[in-house]
Structures are given as structure tokens and as C-alpha cells.
Design brief:
The structure holds two protein chains of two kinds.
Chain A: H1 5-47, H2 52-58
Chain B: H1 2-45, H2 53-99, H3 101-104, H4 108-135, H5 139-145, H6 151-161, H7 166-200, H8 207-240, H9 243-253
Helix pairs in contact in B: 1-2, 1-5, 1-8, 2-4, 2-5, 2-6, 4-7, 5-6, 6-9, 7-8
The chains are: A mainly alpha, B mainly alpha.
Chain lengths: 59, 254
């Protein structure tokens, strides 16, 4: 049996229609975790922002 | 004066920046792993067994190290192939240089042929990338759905499964990219003017506008990942049903 592109598209959208709730939950959790990690990192990065050169400019 | 203001603090500050960069690097690695776990979980949930999300997550977690090792191995292999390709193009570049620009004694005469060689090289790299994508598109379902936790066996199984279907698989992959790009440009094109207009006027966009753009991009990222996972699962579903793929599965055992 040969691979069929049109059948692959049919099955792709069929799978999405069947399982969209679970898939959305997992994808959203993954995205949220990534955003959280980046946010935490930025928080630390902001912490490093207190460089003397910046103090100098403020002064 | 300068020393008292910057000199003493310079070394610790550089250290702090290096630490922050290292932290950024670690975070990006961690984000990749998290995304990979989520993607493996989605593919696990899309198998024929219609696995519940909780069980799919457990499978996704188990499959992630194998997938990560296989991906690192394939990335290193691809970089090696690209380097070999560049080395293979060197004689062609030298030939162009010998018969083109150097013969005329001008560097401008070399620009046209050099651009041609660069274009051929880029096209070759693009086709190589599509080819590799097509050959390893079933790698993740092989690990997740067949529970092949040996990365090298999974690579071999994917290679065997996709044999004889490369052209159509490449067509399917390119069609997916086109769909995703069209949706991306539609979303970005709709929202960009609301952000771009204040920026062009030298003002910051409002928090609401930035939040709308962020939310739209997040939704697009989620939707594109769902689409990619479903497309990979559908591809695997078709190829796994192929009797020749079954024969390929039996081959390593013998």
C-alpha cells in the first residue's frame, strides 16, 4: 500500500477532531511550563541587572 | 575615577553576565525537554489505543530520553553531512574561481558564478533537509507507540518504514509547512498593524495590544504543535499498516 497525502490529511484532521481537548490541554501545559521557565529566568536576569555601570548612569 | 566606578566591579559583573548566559542556555535546554515531553505525550495520546492523557504523559516521559538521544545523534549526523557537502562544493568553487574571476583578474566578475554556486549549495542543503525529515518522520511514533526505547533501533526502524515513500512524505511535509506558514502570516498580518502603527509613530503599543498579540501567538504555537503531532501520528498510522513496513520490523529481530 502506497502512502497517500490526501488520506494523511484526512486522518490528521480526523485525529484532531477526536482528541482536540486532550491535545490542547497537553500543548497548553507544555507552553505554560516553557513560559514559566523563561519567566523565572528573566526574573533572575533582572536581578543581575543591578550593574555598577547602571548605578553610574543613574547617578 | 573610572576605576573606582567601573574597574573594581567589572570582573564580578562579567561573571554575573556569564552566569546569566549560562542560566539562559540551561533554561532553553529545559524548555526543549519540556516541549519534547509534551510532544511525545500528544503522539502517545494519538495512537490507535486512544490512550488517556495521564497514561499518555507517563509514556511521553518514558519516551523523551530516547527521543532526545536520537535527535542529538541525527542532528550531529546532519551537521556532518552538511559539512561534507560544503567540502564537496569546494572543488566547484575553485573551478568557478579559476575560469571566472581570476581569469579576468577582477573580483566583480566572480560575483555572478559565486552566487550561482551558493544557490546550488543552498538548494542541495534544502533538499537534503527535506529528505532527512521524510526519512525520520516516524521516529517519534516508533519510540512512543511501539515503545522502541533503543534510539538506534528506532532510527533504523523509521528509516526502513519510510523507504519507498520518501517523495510523497516530502510532499506531505512541505504541504504542512505551507499550511502552517499561511496561518502564521494570516494571524501576524491581522495583528501586526495594531502593533506596528504605534511603533512607527514612536510610541509603545498598549498593554492590551501586546497581550492580544502574545495570546494569538501562544494559540498559534499550540495549534501548530497539535497539527504537527496529528500529522506525524497519521503518517505513522498509514506506514505501519503497510505490509512492507511489517516486514521491515521483523528484519532486525532475525
Amino acid at each position: 500500500m502506497r502512502f497517500s497525502i490526501s488520506r494523511a490529511f484526512d486522518e490528521t484532521f480526523g485525529l484532531i477532531r477526536e482528541r482536540w481537548k486532550g491535545l490542547t490541554l497537553v500543548a497548553a501545559l507544555g507552553a505554560a511550563a516553557s513560559v514559566g521557565l523563561v519567566g523565572l529566568n528573566l526574573w533572575h536576569f533582572v536581578g543581575y541587572g543591578e550593574l555598577p555601570i547602571w548605578h553610574g548612569r543613574r547617578a | 575615577m573610572v576605576n573606582s566606578q567601573f574597574g573594581m566591579g567589572a570582573e564580578p559583573d562579567l561573571l554575573a553576565i556569564q552566569q546569566a548566559q549560562a542560566r539562559l542556555f540551561r533554561t532553553s535546554i529545559l524548555c526543549t525537554v519540556v516541549q519534547l515531553i509534551a510532544f511525545c505525550t500528544m503522539v502517545a495520546a494519538l495512537g490507535k489505543e486512544q490512550t488517556a492523557i495521564g497514561k499518555a504523559l507517563s509514556t511521553g516521559l518514558k519516551a523523551t530520553p530516547t527521543t532526545l538521544i536520537a535527535c542529538v545523534f541525527l542532528t550531529v549526523g546532519t551537521v556532518g553531512l552538511y559539512l561534507a557537502m560544503i567540502l564537496a562544493f569546494i572543488p566547484l568553487i575553485l573551478l568557478v574561481a579559476a575560469f571566472g574571476g581570476f581569469a579576468n583578474g577582477s573580483s566583480e566578475a566572480l560575483a555572478g558564478p559565486a552566487a550561482g554556486v551558493a544557490l546550488i549549495m543552498m538548494a542541495a542543503m534544502f533538499f537534503m533537509m527535506i529528505y532527512l525529515f521524510a526519512r525520520f518522520v516516524t521516529l517519534l511514533p516508533v519510540v512512543v507507540l511501539e515503545r522502541t526505547f533503543n534510539p538506534f533501533r528506532a532510527i533504523r526502524r523509521s528509516w526502513q518504514m519510510t523507504r519507498g515513500h520518501t517523495l510523497k512524505l516530502a510532499g506531505f511535509i512541505i504541504a504542512q509547512w505551507i499550511i502552517v506558514m499561511v496561518v502564521y502570516f494570516a494571524v501576524a498580518g491581522t495583528l501586526a498593524p495594531s502593533i506596528g502603527a504605534p511603533l512607527l509613530a514612536g510610541q509603545m503599543p498598549s498593554v492590551g495590544q501586546l497581550a492580544t498579540l502574545g495570546a494569538a501567538m501562544a494559540l498559534f504555537a499550540i495549534a501548530s504543535r497539535i497539527f504537527a503531532a496529528a500529522a506525524i501520528a497519521a503518517t505513522y498510522g498509514q506506514l505501519a499498516a503497510d505490509p512492507s513496513a511489517e516486514a521491515a520490523t521483523a528484519e532486525p529481530a532475525t
